[in-house]
């Protein structure tokens, strides 16, 4: 009988540890999902909408809305070789107070979508032929 109690006790301990382990894994999974929602989703979530882009350019702080459009914009519209005139016609006037590098223009995206207080900008650069060579996000 004593041996049967020990075996039952061991099974209960193993079951308790398994439940605890699943709880820890569940909490870890929740943390990862929350981390993704807070930090990454704004950077992937939106398709480019020209009217919304132009409206938010005029509004100043845009709560990450423009940043969400950048990936789609870069993948579908800002391709190498796109003429500068087409880019400006699509995105509106560049940020007036930017300090662009040679041949580059900036578009203000608003504050970083995390805890940072820095503004982010979409920098678009053109070659000597006024065709797009590269674009990236800067702070």
Description:
With 139 residues, this protein is of the alpha+beta class. It has helices at residues 2-40, 50-59, 65-76, 84-91; strands at residues 104-111, 119-126, 132-138. It is built from four helices and three strands. The protein has a three-stranded antiparallel sheet, covered by helices on one side.
Key structural traits:
Beta-lactamase Inhibitory Protein, Chain:B, domain 1; 3-stranded antiparallel beta sheet; 139 residues; alpha+beta
Number of strands: 3
Strand percent estimate: 15-25%
Order of helices and strands: HHHHEEE
CATH class of the domain at 44-138: Alpha Beta
Order of strands across the biggest sheet? Answer: 1-2-3
Tell me the radius of gyration. Answer: 25 Å
Tally of separate helices: 4
Q: Average the pLDDT over all residues and give the rounded result.
A: 80
Q: How would the global form be characterised?
A: rod-shaped
**Biggest sheet features:** 3 strands, antiparallel
Helix content: 40-55%
Low-confidence stretches: none
CATH architecture of the domain at 44-138: 2-Layer Sandwich
Would you tell me which CATH topology of the domain at 44-138 applies?
Beta-lactamase Inhibitory Protein, Chain:B, domain 1
Structural class: alpha+beta
**Assembly category:** single chain
Give the terminus-to-terminus CA distance: 71 Å
């Amino acid at each position: 009988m004593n041996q049967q109690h020990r075996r039952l006790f061991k099974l209960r301990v193993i079951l308790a540890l398994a439940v605890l382990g699943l709880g820890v894994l569940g909490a870890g999974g929740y943390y990862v999902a929350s981390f993704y929602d807070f930090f990454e989703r704004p950077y992937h979530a939106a398709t480019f909408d020209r009217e919304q882009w132009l409206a938010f350019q005029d509004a100043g702080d845009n709560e990450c809305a423009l940043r969400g459009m950048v990936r789609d914009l870069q993948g579908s519209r800002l391709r190498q070789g796109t003429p500068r005139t087409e880019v400006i016609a699509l995105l509106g006037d560049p940020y007036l107070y930017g300090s662009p590098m040679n041949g580059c223009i900036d578009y203000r995206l608003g504050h970083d979508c995390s805890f940072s207080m820095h503004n982010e900008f979409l920098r678009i650069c053109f070659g000597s032929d006024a065709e797009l060579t590269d674009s990236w996000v800067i702070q």
